[in-house]
Amino acid sequence: MITIDSLNKLYHTPRGTFTALRDVNLQIEKGDVFGIIGLSGAGKSTLIRCLNRLEEPDSGSIVIDGREITRLATHDLREARKKIGMIFQHFNLLDARTVQGNVAFPLELAGWPRKEIAQRVEEILDLVGLSDKAGNYPAQLSGGQKQRVGIARALANHPEVLLSDEATSALDPQTTSSILELLADINRKLGLTIVLITHEMSVIKQICSKVAVMDRGEIVECGAVQQVFSAPSSATMKLFLEHSALLQGYGAGI
Amino acid sequence: MHEDLIPMLLTGFGETLYMVVLSTVAAIVLGLPLGVLVVITSTGHVLESPRLNRVLGALINVTRSFPFIIMIVLLLPLSRFLVGTTLGATAASVPLSIAAAPFLARIIENSLKEVDRGKVEAALAMGATPLQIVRKVLIPEALSSLVLGVTLAVITITGFTATAGAIGAGGLGSLAIRYGYMRYREDVMFATVLILVIFVQGVQWSGDRLARRINRNQHRLG
Q1: Is the ipTM value over 0.90, yes or no?
Q2: Secondary structure letter of residue A54 according to DSSP
Q3: Domain coordinates of chain B in residue numbers?
Q4: Given an 8 Å threshold on Cβ–Cβ distance, is B220 in contact with A95?
Q5: Which residues are listed as membrane-spanning (chain B) (predicted)?
Q6: What is the tens place of the pLDDT at every residue in A86-132?
Q7: What is the pLDDT of residues B117-154, one digit of tens each?
Q8: Chain A residues within 8 A of B112 when measuring between CB atoms
Q9: B5-115+141-219: which CATH architecture?
Q10: Is A12 helix (H, G, I), strand (E, B) or coil?
């Protein structure tokens, strides 16, 4: 479904060159919930943003559903983006539009007729459990509700892939859990491929089938969640596991 | 009170109002695309073009540097070309619009810059074109701030019309100079200033109210 091949990305700053991605190779299958975990600065955000070319990689290729994203010219890239949904840490909803208007937005961009938009918006708001909030503005919603709108917006135009850029990092644990449940539910119901990045082990544990671990721009470990958790090979993953065991230990003591 | 006072004021105010409305509309027509272009051609934005950005920035700065009275004199030939005369309210609207446009462009630039980058990025990720981002994201999201900016421009233009009145544009400014100052008609001087004060208050009040109304929808809590 998604093949990433020798992807490289450098940032040139006044203080020198910074390698954000170094020879990244990944294979993501259709229907996977694929997690990418790493500390901040590991390059995971750059990687996910390369998938729809919000960031331009310097070299390497990305193929999604048989289409080489890295070779598309502007117009074709826009068309391809309409089939790649994305959700964000800070939701990025339009404050001047109602919930309904926000979900309709990608459909307007895709040139849907008005009547079909209304129908689709209703359908998708029902899926994320926000039918009763259709007429509300984002400012009137809680964080979890805002992310549900974000998800509805990302799903409206029947995407093949959903990219999640730290979508639960700004939410409390309960809300995080309910958003992850919704994503898992959508993955099951629609067979949608989900690629998510996070710095939280609990997110990987709760919904991912496969995980890649990033450190300083490189994939240091990759595999099925079960396998990586029971027999980690990278220092980064061991550190993550130790840390999360420690936290659980504290939790038990409280 | 002279019996000529009321009709004189009515005519004067009518001319002022005409100049303000005409110049504001023209300044928006010229200034809005300019302000939008300056924003979207800036580094990291949807139509990044450092060279065009620098050219537009310089154009705005240069036109804003001219004192208004010099601008009128310089643009006399343009007024004559477009309107056929250099006298009267319509002719004066030419330099008024051209002086107000870069000022308005800067105000619009500031408003549009306030729109969260994340919203633009989300629209890009959905496959929006630069034009769609301007029409469906930047302008609607900045609307209440844009209304306040236009309000500010209307008031500035009102001030400019008085200056234009001193050299043949008509309007209340012209009345104040020709009658109030040159013929010692204190009643005219007092009345024109009073009308301008009330007018400016009214414009600001309406602008604030409209901006609040736009904002209320977006920030009303459930």
Answers
A1: yes
A2: S
A3: 5-115+141-219
A4: no
A5: 17-40, 52-75, 81-104, 145-168, 188-207
A6: 999 999 999 999 999 999 999 999 999 999 999 999 999 999 999 99
A7: 999 999 999 999 999 999 999 999 999 999 999 999 99
A8: none
A9: Orthogonal Bundle (1.10)
A10: strand
